[in-house]
Amino acid sequence: MGPRAGVFCHNGLGDGVVSLVLSNNLHLNGWRVDTFQNSIGSMQNWIPHLPIFSYPDVDQIDKILQEYQWFFVFQNDSSEFIQRLISEGKRRDPDQMKIIYIYPSRHIVNEPYYQDAQIDPNRPVAENMRLFCEKILHLPKITGSNGFIPPSGLQHREHSKRVIIHPTSSRAGKNWPKEKFIKLATQLQKDGYDPVYILGKEERESWMDQSEWCAPEFPTLDEAARYIYESGYLLGNDSGLAHLASFLGVPTLTITRRKALARLWAPSHAPGVVVTPHSWIPNIRGLRLRDRHWQKFISTEKVLRAFDRLVQTAV
Description:
Elements: E1 4-8, H1 13-28, E2 32-36, E3 52-53, H2 61-64, E4 70-74, H3 80-92, E5 97-100, H4 125-136, E6 159-166, H5 178-190, E7 194-197, H6 201-208, H7 221-229, E8 231-237, H8 240-247, E9 252-255, H9 259-265, E10 272-275, H10 289-292, H11 300-314
Parallel strand pairs: 1-2, 1-4, 2-3, 4-5, 6-7, 6-8, 8-9, 9-10
């Protein structure tokens, strides 16, 4: 039996999907890996070789620190559990715990444990996970895959003209305007595609009273993943579903406010394009015109042109 490792991810869907690249590489090299993450548990059947657990209670930290030879912890200021785990783990044995920072800042090198992982904000986060395994951990077997194994009975991209539109995200400030998404879906249908929305429970009522497009409901992430896997494309805001689609091999188009965010967080496992405001729009400190009004600077026509490029790339 190989050494045991605990991987403690952020709880966002995208974070969890990408972090599995690390878990999968450790598994490939003989480690027994437990991954802790609160969003992706219903997809356990896609990764039977990578056990997924919800975060334990804070009072279990002492027990956890005795269970694994190695710890890989994604830094998270908002989680008391993660902060306590880092503090106690680094106090007991700093070499057995690697801290990983995932955010696009030139100041990242000033973080106290940056040397543990040396994340490059100019590379996609999935590529950073692969490089971490190769350059820092020196694992002999390396993969860019997060280990997804499609359940039997599914046919990849069977509905090649079905375009999933994910018009919401974790924060309203990340969302392209509703009226532009509706215009986008209208034009896609005219072009021969089958646009379909994926919406959270809290958004369904406000969206469906203004749009004619189908929006199937998915009780679990597993069911959503099956639907995405058999679809042709996914378009939407910077969100976890885009990363899920990419690791399912489905081409993505991501709309986001800043190129620096896109360089690190754009889905990169399958063909993808990112649409951002033009860099010539002023974004100086104190004004931040581009950041504050980015939705106005991305037209539906610009997104449609980007989608055409995606279709050509994904052929």
